[in-house]
Amino acid sequence: MESELKDLNSKPASKPSSQHDDGSSAKDDRPLLKPDPASSVSTEELQELEKKCAAYVRSDSYGTMGRGQLTVREKLLLGVALVTLVPIRVVVGMTLLLFYYLICRICTLFSSPNRDEEQEDYAHIHGWRRAVIVQCGRSLSRVMLFVLGFYWINETYRIPDAADESKPAAEGKEESQEAERPGAIISNHVSYLDILYHMSSSFPSFVAKRSVAKLPLVGLISKCLGCVYVQRESKSSDFKGVAAVVTDRVREAHQNKSAPPMMLFPEGTTTNGDFLLPFKTGAFLAKAPVLPVILRYPYQRFSPAWDSISGVRHVIFLLCQFVNHIEVMRLPIYHPSQEEKDDPKLYANNVRRLMASEGSMTLSDIGLAEKRVYHAALNGNNSRPSVLHQKDD
């Protein structure tokens, strides 16, 4: 999901380092944490890079890339969890995934998916089939979070100010009704766990890489979610096509109560949760109201944020944590002004500033290109002592 909105609004670039908003070029489609033997920077240079790329710096007990020096107590806890908790969670998690896949398979039997160019989904089937897919998906997603140690979810709802509620009489009842139907849910992006939470909360459609549709088990589930598929290496004309699909889906969700909501991560990549990156404009082109949602993952030992740590290492450490925490803040539905409707970039920036203020996050002007540079520097310094600023638990 980290490059979803980059794919909607960006154009291929010949030099990734010069594209702060667009992420990277097609030829830069490589794992963020793939070792680069040619990369070598000094400790001082890495410290300077950490100041610039603070949005991606880990500050938990596990250190840089999850490879920091652990205390004897922490090693003991990991050892116990590896032989007791992890096997149970893996078995139960895979069972839940297979069970939901079977539900989706049964509910889509003898049904033809919606096909639009290279898009394919089952999000618009109606009746008991759709009800079963949605309700089971929401329930099992919450159960999956419970299995992963998120036993409680602290959700807060920010009540609109009196000034926000006051509307000119000329706007009438129509806008009041529209306020109940946002076109898209806008969230900061901290981890792949964000997807599980939003599935359990509203079961929205996401933007995903086209390869996800072909994955075993997950592929069919993504089609039932109504995911919009993008291809990283597509040409700019394809980007425009996907942007049009997303814009239409956002408008449909705003106007049609039976349409699945659209979930978008406008930052385009994950952070450590303390910063908010610049927003892509893809979520705001439809000129529809949006629902801002802020996610935080408080921790004492291991941070669930997927910032500068490999996927396998992150999953193992996450499964080893006996308890994990998530906090959710839902802001009032944001209705754009006419000026914001005419300028999607202004609309995106205003929503971003609101979320940063309400969520006590720091605005950052870096993007995926800087993340790649930071990861490359980390891989060139695996043998060096950690220079990250450690967080007091």
Task: Tell me what the structure shows.
This protein has 14 helices and eleven strands. It has helices at residues 4-9, 43-52, 72-83, 85-107, 128-147, 162-165, 172-178, 193-201, 218-225, 236-255, 311-320, 338-342, 344-358, 368-379; strands spanning 114-116, 119-121, 153-157, 184-187, 207-209, 228-230, 262-264, 275-276, 290-296, 326-330, 362-363. Mean pLDDT is 82; it is low at 1-28, 35-39, 165-179 and 381-393. Helix content is 41%, strand content 10%. The radius of gyration is 21 Å and the shape is globular. A five-stranded mixed β-sheet has the order 3-10-9-4-7, covered by helices on one side. The protein has a two-stranded antiparallel sheet with strand order 1-2. Strands 5-6 form a two-stranded parallel ribbon.
Low-confidence stretches: 1-28, 35-39, 165-179, 381-393
How far do the termini sit from each other? 30 Å
Strand order of the largest sheet: 3-10-9-4-7
Count structural domains. Answer: 1
* Strand/helix succession: HHHHEEHEHHEHEHEHEEEHEHHEH
Q: Average the pLDDT over all residues and give the rounded result.
A: 82
Number of helices: 14
- Given helix and strand content, the structural type is alpha/beta
What percentage of amino acids are in beta strands?
A: 5-15%
| Overall shape | globular
User: Count the strands?
Assistant: 11
Q: Helicity level, as a percent range?
A: 40-55%
Radius of gyration: 21 Å
Could you give a short account of the major beta sheet? 5 strands, mixed
In short:
Pathway: Lipid metabolism. The chain contains 14 helices and 11 strands.
